[in-house]
Amino acid sequence: MTRTFRHATRIWLPALVAAAAIVVVACMPLGAQADAQTAVNTAFNKYKTLKEGKNADYIPALAKVDPNLFGIALVTIDGKVASAGDLATEVSIQSISKVFTMAQVIQEQGPESIEKRIGVDATGARFNSIIAVEAVRNVVGSGAPEMNALVNPGAISATSMVTGGSADAVWNKIIGFHNDFAGRQLKVLQDVYKSESDTNQRNQAIGALMYAYGYIKTDWKQAVDLYTRQCSIGVNAKDLAVMAATLAAKGRNPVTGKQVMDPAKVPPVLAVMATAGLYDDSGKWLYHTGLPAKSGVGGGIIAVSPGKFGIAVVSPPLDDAGNSVRAQKAIADVSNALNGNPLAGGR
Ligand code: DON
Fold first, then answer.
1. What is the pLDDT of residue 137?
2. pLDDT confidence of residue 341
3. Alpha carbon nearest to ligand 1 atom 1, residue
4. Ligand 1: which of 100, 101, 127, 225 to mutate, judged by most atoms within 8 Å of the beta carbon?
5. ∠ at Cα 330 (327, 334), nearest 5°?
6. Measured between alpha carbons, how far is 244 from 154 in angstroms, rounded to an integer?
7. Mean pLDDT, the chain cut into blocks of 10 residues (347 residues total)
8. pLDDT of residue 212
9. Which residues does ligand 1 sit against, CB inside 6 Å?
């Protein structure tokens, strides 16, 4: 062996071995990687002392929730769980419920039902904007409604589309669908329900307007009340992660094994989440993570890496757009560490 060749081997061999190791790790299925738990632990430790943001207070009960509450859970499509922090304390699901009621309408009446009645486009306005309703009204006749079922007007309309007759019958269907996604029986947090019912005059105005403009065709007061109830369902970080993982697994709950939705009807749900799940910041979120996601003012965020995992974080302090500060940061870190971005093309 010449001196030059020996020298080159000393330099290149370790580099080759390192490159091969990276390729092997990247090719491992997620379930086989110990690094889901490592990524979750790393994010938890990095953000556990972060104090940015503020609890929502326009619903008085939300202002009283402990702002230090912080839990991360990741569930793979084969039902493996990685977690850190508080997995037990329940917060109200709030706007995250909009995903599952929209999914229920899509499941029962097809994706076109939501597209035709409500629309699947971003509004570019806050989640409870009334100006957005007026703006949409101008294009609605043109067959191009610029709204979606993840902002309050669209969500209250979606709730009104769940069939069943009496309020109780419709409610049993709504909570039943949420239960199937979570894999356990969920309950309404009565203090939150009361607090929001006492203060939701703006949503009542939106409900009345949506009825006046023909989006809601049934009793709008019932729709607003059921919507308020669904927003008050109590969930912990693990529940939310299982719900997200069920979407990641083509509608099959990976913990209970139940097929909750038709696989073909899941992509439209994920598409609306990608478009409008984090409201005005949805574009920024997608730019950095590529993940369909949904936030709630209770402090939860769910995100879905299709075919891989669902992840959820609960942490009540929110940013100006109404999204949990720590949840956004922790989910982005964990997903990026696990190659979770579907727009990156796999693995
Ligand atoms: O209707 C409301 O204002 C609340 N029940 C839900 C709003 C919400 O979660 C918006 N999320 N970021």
1. 72
2. 97
3. 152
4. 127
5. 135
6. 21
7. 42 41 40 77 98 97 98 98 98 98 98 94 89 76 74 97 95 98 98 98 96 94 98 98 98 98 98 95 96 98 98 97 96 97 84
8. 92
9. 94-95, 127-128, 152, 196, 203, 231, 295-297, 322
Q: Cα dihedral sign for 59, 230, 253, 340?
A: negative
Question: Given this model, what pLDDT does residue 312 score?
Answer: 98
Query: Which are the contacts of 50, defined by CB distance < 8 A and separation ≥ 6?
Result: 325, 326, 329
Nearest CA to ligand 1 atom 7: 95
Residue 47: both structure tokens together? 């953000």
Per the CB < 8 A criterion, the answer to whether 222 and 73 are in contact is: no
Residue 302 contacts residue 293 (beta carbons within 8 Å): yes
* Closest ligand 1 atom number to CA of residue 95: 9
Residue 300 DSSP code:
E
**DSSP codes of every residue in 155-221:** HHHHHHHS--SSHHHHHHHHHHHHHHHHTS---B-HHHHHHHHHH-HHHHHHHHHHHHTTS--S-HH
Token pair in block for residue 96: 């995250």
Kind and range of the H or E run holding 117: helix 111-117
Q: What is the total residue count of the chain? A: 347
Q: What is the pLDDT of residue 140?
A: 54
pLDDT of residue 12: 44
Report CA(338)–ligand 1 centroid distance (Å).
Answer: 30
Distance 5 CA to ligand 1 centre (A): 66
- CA distance linking residue 85 with residue 329, whole number of Å: 15
